[in-house]
């Protein structure tokens, strides 16, 4: 049985993909991935491959999307398809490190303050956020805590440049992002799509970087529709 491997992003947990998990087709086994224990994206992918034994369809959000691409690089024979949501492809920028290190320091100083500063730009600009959603995301960040935050930020700093290998990915790929995602915009996803053999790009209106929880119904429709469309290729 093929496994739908749901991979959350930075300081995130299973609640990011909760709606997709609940709506997944019956021909798939659903597994929530844990990427909080390793210090590099390569190690995160290697652990997930070790912990699972069946063919995979990784579904990755943000940092999780980078882990999903790394899974396809490390074990192309096991990855039947990929869903990459609100993600990126580049290596670390020239002036990025000081900003990342400052975020790590801020987390150890006051995780609640970090959440209050970090979350608003992650949501769709110009659309009043749902207070219950903001509370849920804040709880998620606080439960992750400063150690996991620091570990994952360092993994992001050491991330591989996916553009160096993404053209080798031969399986079907769905790229999906929010129209108001300023962190991982549509342009970034189309740059990935241009390198892929079998791909589809889906843009969800009214969603920012946390698209899977901002617009869960639309996200579910896009992903389950793609899964059904490619069922014969994915369920082998």
TrEMBL record:
Gene3D superfamilies: alpha/beta hydrolase
InterPro entries (UniProt xref): AB_hydrolase_1, AB_hydrolase_fold, Carboxylesterase_BioH
Molecular-function GO terms, alphabetical: hydrolase activity
Keyword entries, A-Z: Hydrolase
Pfam families hit by this protein: Abhydrolase_6
Residue ranges of the TM segments: none
UniProt key word Transmembrane: no
Domain (AB hydrolase-1) ranges: 4-222
Superkingdom in the source lineage: Bacteria
The name this protein goes by in its record: Alpha/beta fold hydrolase
Species of the source: Martelella lutilitoris
């Amino acid at each position: 049985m093929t496994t739908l491997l749901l991979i959350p992003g930075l300081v995130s947990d299973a609640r990011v993909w909760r709606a997709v998990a609940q709506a997944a087709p019956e021909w798939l086994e659903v597994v929530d991935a844990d990427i909080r224990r390793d210090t590099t994206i390569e190690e995160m992918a290697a652990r997930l491959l070790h912990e699972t034994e069946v063919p995979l369809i990784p579904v990755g959000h943000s940092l999780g999307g980078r882990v999903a691409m790394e899974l396809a690089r490390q074990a192309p024979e096991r990855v039947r398809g990929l869903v990459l949501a609100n993600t990126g492809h580049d290596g670390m920028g020239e002036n990025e490190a000081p900003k990342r290190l400052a975020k790590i320091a801020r987390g150890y100083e006051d995780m609640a303050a970090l959440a209050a500063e970090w979350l608003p730009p992650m949501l769709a600009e110009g659309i009043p956020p749902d207070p219950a959603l903001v509370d849920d995301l804040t709880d998620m960040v606080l439960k992750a805590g400063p150690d996991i935050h620091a570990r994952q930020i360092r993994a992001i700093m050491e991330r591989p440049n996916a553009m160096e290998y993404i053209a080798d990915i031969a399986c079907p790929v769905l790229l999906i992002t929010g129209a108001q995602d300023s962190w991982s915009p549509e342009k970034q996803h189309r740059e990935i799509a241009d390198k892929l053999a079998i791909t589809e790009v889906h843009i969800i209106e009214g969603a920012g970087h946390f698209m899977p929880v901002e617009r869960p119904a639309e996200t579910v429709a896009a992903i389950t529709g793609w899964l059904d469309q490619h069922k014969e290729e994915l369920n082998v």
